[in-house]
């Protein structure tokens, strides 16, 4: 557990970066610090490993005041990941990962063996260990940065906007990888970002900071989206917070409907509505519009892209997005293996939400 007790950071020019911060980060969870630039979120993070010294208050890590620890020893016991990985360019990937174990007195053989093991843990082939950082993509460098932070198996991991320098597709993959690792390793993670979508996606608790280093709200993602504490939080979370809130509503009662389907490569008679094309494994491939071929063979080239897919048993946000992104206005629902199970409309999602509101207010 990490505890901030009335922690303040005031710089020599009188600027208050963090103002009386009090919160607890539960062990084995991901807590995200989020807010606009200059709000004190990174300063708060860096005070945990004493890269920035607090002006006042107390920070406890697992019940121990960080001021009672030598700063260098403290940092070796806390993993730290920064933007653009911060790797040593003149060292190989394996030697980068082995940095902290070597400083802690491990033999080179043991440290390198641990580094090779961690490459696989973060989803990279062991062969990359011989390369240098400049020979890796941005996403690979960030994974190496995570591996280096985990090398000495620290209980606490600090991550300062680690994924902000990569493109959106790579960023989503890195977020997925972090969630997978957390499920396996159960670390106490503090993650800094300026992106509320990233915060909602990975955080179990979110601390929203405002200018002046003031904590505006500390809550679960669902609470933050449905019950913002004040106008600042509401504006920061965004006007589409109701849509984001669907990420925390299960689709359990959502009924799927059937639609005309045809297999790619098969012959199809002209129809009056949209037809969903499937491959031989029952996976959706796209849509045939009503005015498409009459009595012709269905080819991939004649299909209209079908928008996103909703995996049955996941959150309603996926179902609504599938319906809104579909050219047919019908969101395609698939099972965990990607096989077609039916379709839903946006109205079905909205009706289900209304029904649940009525149940909650006692009108049903």
Automatic annotation (TrEMBL):
Residues 2-237 form the ABC transporter domain. SUPFAM superfamilies: P-loop containing nucleoside triphosphate hydrolases. InterPro entries: AAA+_ATPase, ABC_transporter-like_ATP-bd, ABC_transporter-like_CS, P-loop_NTPase. It comes from the Bacteria. It holds the Pfam family ABC_tran. PROSITE patterns: ABC_TRANSPORTER_1 (PS00211), ABC_TRANSPORTER_2 (PS50893). Coiled coil: none annotated. Keywords: ATP-binding, Nucleotide-binding, Transport. Its EC number is 7.6.2.9. GO terms for molecular function: ABC-type quaternary ammonium compound transporting activity; ATP binding; ATP hydrolysis activity. Belongs to the ABC transporter superfamily. This is ABC-type quaternary amine transporter.
């Amino acid at each position: 557990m990490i505890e901030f007790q009335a922690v303040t950071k005031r710089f020599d020019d009188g600027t208050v970066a963090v103002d009386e911060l009090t919160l607890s980060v539960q062990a084995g969870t991901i807590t995200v610090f989020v807010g606009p630039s200059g709000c004190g979120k990174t300063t708060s993070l860096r005070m945990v490993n004493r890269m920035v010294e607090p002006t006042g208050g107390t920070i406890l890590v697992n019940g121990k005041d960080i001021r009672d620890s030598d700063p260098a020893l403290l940092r070796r016991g806390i993993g730290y990941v920064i933007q653009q990985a911060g790797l040593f360019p003149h060292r190989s990937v394996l030697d980068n990962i082995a940095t902290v174990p070597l400083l802690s007195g491990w033999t080179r053989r043991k440290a390198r063996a641990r580094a090779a093991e961690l490459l696989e843990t973060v989803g990279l082939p062991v062969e990359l260990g011989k390369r240098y950082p400049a020979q890796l993509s941005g996403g690979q460098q960030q994974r190496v940065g995570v591996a280096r932070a985990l090398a000495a198996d620290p209980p606490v991991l600090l991550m300062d906007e680690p994924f902000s320098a990569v493109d959106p597709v790579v960023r989503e993959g890195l977020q997925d990888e972090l969630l997978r690792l957390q499920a396996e390793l159960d670390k106490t993670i503090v993650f800094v970002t300026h992106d509320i979508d990233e915060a909602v996606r990975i955080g179990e608790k979110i601390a929203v900071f405002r200018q002046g280093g003031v904590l505006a709200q500390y809550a679960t993602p669902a609470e933050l989206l449905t019950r913002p504490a004040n106008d600042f939080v509401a504006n920061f979370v965004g006007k589409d917070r109701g849509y984001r809130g669907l990420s925390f509503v299960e689709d359990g009662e959502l009924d799927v409907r059937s639609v005309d389907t045809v297999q790619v490569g098969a012959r199809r008679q002209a129809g009056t509505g949209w037809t969903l094309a499937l491959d031989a494994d029952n996976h959706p491939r796209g849509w045939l519009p009503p005015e498409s071929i009459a009595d012709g063979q269905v080819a991939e080239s004649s299909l209209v892209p079908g928008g996103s897919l909703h995996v049955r048993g996941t959150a309603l946000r996926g179902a609504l997005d599938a319906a809104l992104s579909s050219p047919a206005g019908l969101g395609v629902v698939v099972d965990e293996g990607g096989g077609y199970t039916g379709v839903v409309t946006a109205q079905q999602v909205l009706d289900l939400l209304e029904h649940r509101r009525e149940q909650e207010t006692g009108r049903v």
